Amino acid sequence: MSAGTSESGTGILQDLRLGTMIRELRRSKETEKGVRLTQAQAAELAGVSVSTYSKWEEGVRRPIRQNLDTLCKAMGAEEWRYQEMMSLVSGSSVQVGAWPPKITPEEIMVIESFPFPAIYRKLPECEIIYSNQACLDTYPMFRPAPSGSSTPANMIEIMLTDWRSRVIFVDWQDIAHRMVYVLKLWSHGVISERLTQIVETCSQVPEFDHMWHTDPLSSLFDNNSIGIRSLGDDSTVTYKVFRSWFPNHQSDEYEILIIPDYVGADPQA
């Protein structure tokens, strides 16, 4: 068997997130006898030793793309899970700096040039760095925190605690559940004061406990279309779609989330 591990010592946070996703993928799969796959069985599917595979799940070692691709396909990983895991295996080190991160006038110009809502945010916490005017017109609650605030505005906190989120997002329950699930994957095994703060804030919402302890249906990840209502006219529903863009190809810490109109047949038809 090959070593199947990247020797890079960078990207500790990405490795922990990836390890969590590999473990959750294994636990979600059952054998013909109705029991979960063991690490030994998963290692055989990936073509690596049990020791190497165990280090993947612990986040101690990062698999190489070829072995991770083999593992995902052998286990029948859902497309959304596959794409997320493959993006993490290519990640580099995360350079954590003081909040708020610097954003240049040129970067603001790019974000404002989008004719549809766009949010520049920091991952994995989903902290809002900048929102263009098109975003604020449709999603006024996704406004960055004022300069000098003790903590940044957080998309997950806003989704769960701001009443406007429940009005604007037609399928609020499903969207919020998906966001909480991803937060859970990202935060597992990561010691972060900020992540703890986010969880504590969201835990005050009645629905959070169920969202945190129950995996969402895999169908929620099949497409990114969302139904949107206007705060001024909640009788009309339009459809948008979530898309992500990482402006710095060397890091997946910062992301531009764009929300253009859904083009094509009615996604709910």
Structural account:
This protein is of the alpha+beta class. Helices cover 43% and strands 12% of the residues. It has twelve helices and eight strands. The chain has helices at residues 12-28, 39-46, 50-58, 65-75, 79-89, 105-113, 133-138, 155-161, 163-168, 172-187, 193-202, 208-213; strands at 5-6, 62-63, 118-122, 127-131, 225-229, 237-241, 243-245, 254-258. The strands form three sheets. Strands 4-3-8-7 form a four-stranded antiparallel beta sheet. Helix 2 crosses helix 4. The longest helix is centred in the first third of the chain and has 17 residues, at 12-28. The chain starts with a strand and ends in an 11-residue tail after the last strand. Mean pLDDT is 82; it is low at 5-10 and 92-98.
Topology:
Layout: E1 5-6, H1 12-28, H2 39-46, H3 50-58, E2 62-63, H4 65-75, H5 79-89, H6 105-113, E3 118-122, E4 127-131, H7 133-138, H8 155-161, H9 163-168, H10 172-187, H11 193-202, H12 208-213, E5 225-229, E6 237-241, E7 243-245, E8 254-258
Antiparallel strand pairs: 1-2, 3-4, 3-8, 5-6, 7-8
Helix pairs in contact: 1-3, 1-5, 2-3, 2-4, 4-5, 8-11
